[in-house]
Amino acid sequence: NPNIVIKDVAINCCVSEIYLRKLFEKYVSITPFKMFTKIRMEQAKFMIEEKRPINEIALSVGYSDIYQFSRAYKKFYGCSPSITKNTYTS
User: Is pLDDT of 90 > 70?
Assistant: First the structure.
């Protein structure tokens, strides 16, 4: 689910958000938000490799617009989605 939030995970696990965050950081060594971002970016990169349109990818991984997605992608990978796409189409 691209719109997953820590609150939903905590409810499904029958624990508080604070406790879930502590468990996450203890056992995974990153915050839940960073883990969700990592999963979204990995899915996005896979879709880029499949040559899907960037705007479709942005919506598929939970971003409301292409600009928000592009900023997050660049922050995560160090280059824009279009540069990644050009790498796979060349």
Answer: no
Nearest by Cα to 81 from 43, 31, 30: 43
Please report which confidence band the pLDDT of residue 14 belongs to, taking 50, 70 and 90 as the band edges. Answer: very high
**Top-tier CATH class for 6-89:** mainly alpha
Residue spans per domain, the chain: 6-89
pTM of the predicted model, to two decimals?
0.81
Distances (CA, A) of 2 to 32, 46, 75, 83, 89: 14, 15, 18, 23, 26
